[in-house]
């Protein structure tokens, strides 16, 4: 069985799916439940919150308690054995009074939590964009396959007519060969288009863990407007609102606070300590019934020499801060490029849609004229095939321009940090409903 025969069942299954289709919001809701990257980002926020709680806990009183019960037996030759049973209780409270390292570590943990929260927002924006990108990539793949099949069917019709004309010796054998060659090329293109559709659907499954049954298609009559405003203004918005940059700024603050933590290791640490000790254990129970001790102390710990550990930890923290700052510069430049590319591409797509619609109109008229000329012997079958090829190429480019416009528009909104579910709802409104599809 050739490759076309192997792919035919899969393409037939795709083409015969039920009318009930998945819309953009439906795919998004599935992705919200199934996307592991979003879930990972949510768990990182939980980790950041726990780390902040740990750092805060180091600034609060530390209380420990110990209880002990024991039985002691004393045996001395010539004397009666004696038992000494008793209990012992110990309670200690320690409170940091001056410990800059703990304070700056708490500030660092706060910035890490802010970083993870911004990364969660970025993950949410990325998921919205991924859903749009993969949804319309799948629609584009469906259109490319459908248009290739339509062109193949039209070429098969042309081939039947050419065979009849050749049988009547009205055309040359080269005309017949040219139609057959074009048909063979379209069959190869159909195989590739079918494979691309399967790949596009698998890409959607990666987000939702479920293969889509069928997708709602793009409606006609949508107005594709260019983005308003100046690019420089939008870049400024992106720098102030993009969550990825916000996360990087928090990472810089966290790294800076970590430098402060390491520098604080050189400073004295002062803490308050309160101890209570109550014992009635062993031989002490013979001397006195109970021994109770209360201690209140101010402890001052002055670091003198740690073998260079503190110094090298500070050097490491300073280097990590410099690395984070360099990463921020790289991300700023990448964001400027991404915002510029998405802005320019979206506007270019809007203009391309208008130009492609005119090109399709012209190509359709040209093909119709060529077919009419063929009937009267003015044009050759080669002219008709070329005109037909140009027409279907214009159809493919028009469909692709529409999908790329939507993808680049959402890509732009993601870059400037404003993409949200309302944008999904707007784009979802551009799709045909199940009722519209059922009435076709």
Automatic annotation (TrEMBL):
Subcellular location: Cell outer membrane
Residues passing through the membrane, by range: none
Coiled-coil parts of chain: 138-165
Source species, domain of life: Bacteria
Keywords, ordered alphabetically: Cell outer membrane, Coiled coil, Membrane, Signal, Transmembrane, Transmembrane beta strand, Transport
Leader sequence segment: 1-21
Pfam families from the UniProt entry: OEP
UniProt record similarity statement: Belongs to the outer membrane factor (OMF) (TC 1.B.17) family.
Protein name, entry field: TolC family outer membrane protein
């Amino acid at each position: 069985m050739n490759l076309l025969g192997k792919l035919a069942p899969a393409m037939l299954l795709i083409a015969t799916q039920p009318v009930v289709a998945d819309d953009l919001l439906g795919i998004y809701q599935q992705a919200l439940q199934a996307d592991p990257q979003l879930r990972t980002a949510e768990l990182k926020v939980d980790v950041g919150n726990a780390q902040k709680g740990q750092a805060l806990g180091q600034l609060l009183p530390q209380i420990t308690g110990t209880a002990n019960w024991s039985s002691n037996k004393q045996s001395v030759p010539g004397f009666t054995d004696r038992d000494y049973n008793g209990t012992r209780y110990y309670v200690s409270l320690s409170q940091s009074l001056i410990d800059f390292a703990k304070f700056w570590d708490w500030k660092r943990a706060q910035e890490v939590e802010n970083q993870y929260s911004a990364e969660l927002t970025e993950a949410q924006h990325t998921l919205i964009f991924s859903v749009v990108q993969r949804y319309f990539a799948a629609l584009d793949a469906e259109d490319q396959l459908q248009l290739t099949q339509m062109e193949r069917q039209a070429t098969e019709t042309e081939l039947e007519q050419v065979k009849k004309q050749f049988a009547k010796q009205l055309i040359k054998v080269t005309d017949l060969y040219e139609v057959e060659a074009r048909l063979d090329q379209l069959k190869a293109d159909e195989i590739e288009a079918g494979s691309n559709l399967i790949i596009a659907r698998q890409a959607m499954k990666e987000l939702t863990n479920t293969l889509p049954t069928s997708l709602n298609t793009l409606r006609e009559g949508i107005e594709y407007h260019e983005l308003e405003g100046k690019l420089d203004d939008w870049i400024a918005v992106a720098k102030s609102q993009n969550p990825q940059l916000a996360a990087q700024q928090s990472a810089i603050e966290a790294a800076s606070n970590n430098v402060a933590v390491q520098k604080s290791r050189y400073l004295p640490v002062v803490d308050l300590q309160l101890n209570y000790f109550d014992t009635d254990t062993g031989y002490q129970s013979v001397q006195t019934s109970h021994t109770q001790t209360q201690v209140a102390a101010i402890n001052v710990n002055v670091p003198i020499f740690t073998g260079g550990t503190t110094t090298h930890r500070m050097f490491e923290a300073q280097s990590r801060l410099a690395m984070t700052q360099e990463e921020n510069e790289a991300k700023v430049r990448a964001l400027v490029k991404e915002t510029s590319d998405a802005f320019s591409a979206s506007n270019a797509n809007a203009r391309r849609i208008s130009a492609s619609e005119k090109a399709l109109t012209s190509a359709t008229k040209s093909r119709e004229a060529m077919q009419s000329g063929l009937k009267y012997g003015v044009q050759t079958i080669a002219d008709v095939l070329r005109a037909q090829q140009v027409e279907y190429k214009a159809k493919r480019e028009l469909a692709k321009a529409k999908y790329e416009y939507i993808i680049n528009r959402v890509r732009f909104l993601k870059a400037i940090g404003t993409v949200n579910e309302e944008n999904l709802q707007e784009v979802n409104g551009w799709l045909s409903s199940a009722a519209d599809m059922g009435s076709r």
